[in-house]
Write a structure and sequence with these properties.
Keywords: Hydrolase, Membrane, Protease, Transmembrane, Transmembrane helix. By secondary structure, this protein is of the alpha+beta class. It contains three helices and five strands. Strand 4 and strand 5 form a beta hairpin. The longest helix has 28 residues. The termini are far apart.
Amino acid sequence: MDIDAWLWWLIGAAVLGIALVITAMPELGMLAVGAVAAASVSGIFGGGAVLQVVVFAVVSTALIAVVRPVAKRQRTQRPQHATGIDALKGRQAVVLERVDGSGGRIKLAGEVWSARALDPGHAFEVGQEVDVVEIEGATAIVM
């Protein structure tokens, strides 16, 4: 039984795809795409063995050179929108009970929070708007 070269490339792509799923190494997926490109050169265009290997090498290398840096940059970037207590920093709140260096209460994002002034010598009266600088546990630090 004589198997055409394009079928060998597709078998190689399938093996690389299975290895990708097992190992979670994205480079294997890029090599699989290179194998599919080589299979296309063989099956559709009838390219020789040297052209198939060159296409495999060029496509795989190009994908690894382009996709890896983009994926690495995406992995190291912080999320675009803040969540949890990070989303509360920098927001404005309304004083419900006098806030000073020892404590008080504010309404922040529709909820009542305990709060204390960033500057212990400064106090905020009921109804004043304050800026949330930090969250320490369940206490908002305001100024």
